[in-house]
């Protein structure tokens, strides 16, 4: 089943070749030429990735990103814009974008980043089914978990608190999965930035603090005893306590 991409771009001369390129690569593409229709389209569902221009005629693209994230959208958001300054990148990532590509850009790089984001945000339903039909006594539902225990399923890219799934963005998942890989160990800020934001990122690490802040709030709201603790001057660690 092809991935569904929403291109939010008001300039016809930019949108037309992008649509042709994406469709040639096998994606289903919708286009919105303004911010408010884009928000409505995302809220309608079935959008795997949003390619988002910032200079829109009704509302700024950053506000579009902020609203779709506030509405619970967990797919990828890639900002495409001529605003290539460091501050613009920081603000874009802080409001929930996953990646940032400054104009002008090459189509090959755009497609590479599109594929990378879609891999990171792919729903678990697309995971390959077991080859062997042997009957298994274990249920397909989430593994039993005590009370409010936190569980990170790295293969399915899903987070569970007890039997409830915790909705997180791609970057939030990557940060949490890294900390969960060695619970209790301290991960330096540099290590987290290198592993999660990789070579696509340069500049301030403020976006890391913003992502950590959102994760902390989600963990607290979920009722789990797991907490992300700041180790002053070093980095972060994930602390989990057994449920009472």
List the helices and strands and how they pair.
Elements: E1 4-8, H1 12-24, E2 28-32, H2 35-44, E3 49-53, H3 61-70, E4 76-81, H4 86-94, E5 99-102, H5 107-120, E6 150-153, E7 158-161, E8 164-166, H6 170-181, E9 187-188, H7 189-196, H8 206-222, E10 227-231, E11 235-239
Parallel strand pairs: 1-2, 1-3, 3-4, 4-5
Antiparallel strand pairs: 6-7, 7-8, 9-11, 10-11
Helix pairs in contact: 2-3, 4-8, 6-8
Note the main sheet. 5 strands, parallel
| Record field, number of beta strands | 11
Spans of 5+ residues with little confidence (pLDDT < 50)? 124-133, 139-145
Q: Given the C-alpha coordinates, what overall shape results?
A: globular
Helix and strand sequence: EHEHEHEHEHEEEHEHHEE
Q: What would CATH call the class of the largest domain? A: Alpha Beta
Structural class: alpha/beta
Query: In the residues, how many domains can be counted?
Result: 2
Task: Return the average pLDDT rounded to an integer.
Answer: 82
Beta-strand residue fraction: 15-25%
Description:
This protein has 244 residues and is α/β, with parallel strands linked by helices. It has two domains: 4-121, Response regulator (Rossmann fold, 3-Layer(aba) Sandwich); 150-240, Arc Repressor Mutant, subunit A (Orthogonal Bundle). Helices cover 38% and strands 20% of the residues. It contains eight helices and eleven strands. It has helices at residues 12-24, 35-44, 61-70, 86-94, 107-120, 170-181, 189-196, 206-222; strands at residues 4-8, 28-32, 49-53, 76-81, 99-102, 150-153, 158-161, 164-166, 187-188, 227-231, 235-239. The strands form three sheets. Strands 2-1-3-4-5 form a five-stranded parallel β-sheet, sandwiched between helices. The protein has a three-stranded antiparallel β-sheet with strand order 6-7-8, with helices on one face. The longest helix is centred in the last third of the chain and has 17 residues, at 206-222. The protein is globular, with a radius of gyration of 19 Å. The termini are far apart. Mean pLDDT is 82; it is low at 124-133 and 139-145. InterPro entries: CheY-like_superfamily, OmpR/PhoB-type_DNA-bd, Sig_transdc_resp-reg_C-effctor, Sig_transdc_resp-reg_receiver, WalR-like, WH-like_DNA-bd_sf. This is DNA-binding response regulator.
């Amino acid at each position: 089943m092809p991935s569904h991409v929403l291109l939010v771009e008001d300039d016809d001369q930019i949108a037309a070749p992008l649509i042709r390129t994406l469709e040639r690569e096998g994606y289903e593409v919708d286009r919105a030429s303004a911010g408010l229709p884009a928000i409505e389209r995302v809220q309608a569902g079935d959008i795997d990735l949003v390619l988002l221009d910032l200079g829109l005629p009704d509302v700024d693209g950053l506000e579009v990103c902020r609203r779709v994230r506030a509405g619970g959208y967990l797919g990828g958001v890639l900002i495409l814009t001529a605003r290539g300054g460091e501050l613009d990148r920081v603000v874009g990532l802080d409001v929930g974008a996953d990646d940032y590509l400054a104009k002008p850009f090459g189509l090959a790089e755009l497609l590479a980043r599109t594929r990378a984001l879609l891999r990171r945000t792919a729903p678990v339903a697309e995971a390959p089914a077991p080859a062997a039909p042997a009957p298994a006594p274990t249920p397909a539902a989430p593994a039993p978990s005590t009370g409010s225990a936190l569980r990170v399923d790295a293969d399915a890219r899903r987070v569970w608190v007890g039997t409830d799934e915790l909705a997180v963005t791609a970057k939030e998942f990557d940060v949490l999965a890294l900390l969960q890989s060695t619970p209790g160990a301290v991960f330096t800020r540099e290590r987290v930035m290198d592993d999660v934001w990789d070579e696509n990122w340069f500049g301030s690490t403020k976006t890391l603090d913003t992502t950590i802040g959102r994760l902390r709030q989600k963990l607290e709201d979920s009722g789990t005893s797991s907490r992300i603790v700041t180790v002053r001057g070093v980095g972060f660690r994930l602390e989990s306590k057994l449920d009472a």
